[in-house]
Amino acid sequence: MTQNSDNAPLFKRVPSMCAKCMALLDHEVVSMYAKGTIKKVRCLTCGTEQKYSKEKAGKPGKVDPARDFDLLNEKFSGNKPQRYSMTGLFKLGDVIDHNTFGRGFVVSALNKRMEVIFSDQPRILVFDRKEMDI
Questions:
Q1: pLDDT digit of tens for each residue in the chain (134 aa)?
Q2: CA 20 to chain CA mean position, Å
Q3: Smallest Cα–Cα separation from 52: which of 14, 92, 87, 94?
Q4: b/e for 55-76, b at 16 or more Cβ within 10 A?
Q5: Does the pTM exceed 0.85?
């Protein structure tokens, strides 16, 4: 992890291809080299740690939302879907049921926005909004 001027660790996220999920997902930096380059990352979806590769970080190759959806559907098949609502609370790994888009899987959630993989394409949705925020 990187550190600020007080030597307190800072949480850093980077996009990277997960070797287990086989999708471009957010990863948490686990360790860095002395030069400040990223050494290891941990997938925020499955928890797998792997070496960070800058070449694979932003290049998923052919993006196939249906394949990503199928992999996530298989992985989280036992989870009961929650009804999506902008006022609802969601976290990484939740399965949602959206009125328009159908079943989806939360692959990242930060600052009241979440990325959800649906069968046709990923989408950014809002959550944890109070009535005044809507």
A1: 444 343 434 458 788 888 777 777 788 888 888 888 888 999 888 888 998 877 665 554 455 677 778 888 888 878 899 999 999 999 988 999 999 999 999 888 888 899 898 988 889 999 998 865 54
A2: 13
A3: 14
A4: ebbeebeeeeeeebbebbeeeb
A5: no
CA distance 124 to 87: 15
CB 93 within 8 A of CB 106: yes
Q: Which residue has the tokens 């290049």?
A: 59
Q: Which two tokens stand for residue 56?
A: 């694979």
Tokens of 105: 């899987």
Domain ranges of the chain: 2-57, 65-133
Q: From residue 93, how far is each of 24, 53, 130 by CA, in Å?
A: 15, 24, 23
